[in-house]
TrEMBL record:
InterPro entries: AlkB-like, AlkB-like_sf, ALKBH3, Oxoglu/Fe-dep_dioxygenase_dom. PROSITE patterns: FE2OG_OXY. It comes from Microlunatus endophyticus. Residues 121-220 form the Fe2OG dioxygenase domain. One of its GO terms (biological process) is DNA alkylation repair. This is Alkylated DNA repair protein.
Length: 222
């Protein structure tokens, strides 16, 4: 009798394990962009496009990237002090192999969808790993390159814990828009957004797990 009970229990357990492995092995795939992207017009020629749930199988991609990306910490001069950049980073230049084929497909899909409007393809992939709510990115525009003077686009795919991307017009100290970016969501900042608006991932005291952001940019935009 007791042997049967044990056998039943172990069957259930292995079935559970198999289910969770199946969940884990859910195919990593991208849903269509056509007809599923919503544009929010900001001021001064800036806009944001949102495509929630673009990536399926985001758990599998998250694990793969946490393990497989050559994350490194950076330190940065802040006035008189050198401080830790509060997130881990990795940059894939246009000829670098991306850590999962789905990211190549993402880049191609974005280039196909936005090519006519953007006038060029997405080329590079920057990655940030926010280990917990203490990791952040301060208010900034991506203006190291051409975003300083030209309209452009920065497309961000998020995996892992949801964090809020905040936006404000340059010169303002108040947040005008908050976009919670969840597991598999896409947001695209476009038009003049990098030079006329600023964005940030602010710290949160809430207990949040790790989040990875993958930013696709055209050549010369940083
Ligand atoms: O984590 C994000 O989604 C934003 C990252 C960002 O703004 C940047 O790397 O320039
Ligand atoms: Fe940025």
């Amino acid at each position: 009798m007791s042997a049967i009970t044990v056998a039943t229990t172990s069957r259930t357990r292995s079935a559970d394990l198999q289910d969770s492995l199946l969940d884990f092995a859910e195919d990593i795939d991208l849903a269509p962009l056509d007809g599923a992207v919503e544009r929010r017009t900001l001021t001064r020629g800036a806009w944001v496009d949102i495509r929630p749930g673009w990536l399926q199988g985001a758990d599998a991609l998250m694990s793969k990237l946490v393990e497989g990306v050559g994350w490194h910490a950076e330190r940065r001069q802040m006035y008189e002090r050198v401080v830790d950049v509060p997130r881990m980073l990795c940059f894939y230049d246009e000829d670098d192999a991306l850590p999962d084929p789905v990211l190549d497909r993402a880049k191609t899909m974005l280039s196909d969808y936005y090519g006519a409007e953007l006038g060029e393809p997405f080329r590079t992939a920057g990655m940030c790993l926010y280990r917990d709510g203490r990791d952040s990115v301060a208010w900034h525009g991506d203006t190291i390159g051409r975003g300083k003077s030209e309209d452009t686009m920065v497309a961000i795919l998020s995996v892992g814990a949801a964090r809020v991307l905040s936006l404000r017009p340059r010169g303002s100290t108040t947040t005008w828009a908050r976009y919670p970016l969840g597991h598999g969501d896409l947001i695209v900042m476009g038009g003049s957004c990098q030079r006329t608006w600023e964005h940030a991932i602010t710290k949160t005291a809430k207990p949040v797990g790790p989040r990875i952001s993958i930013q696709f940019r055209p050549r010369g935009v940083r």
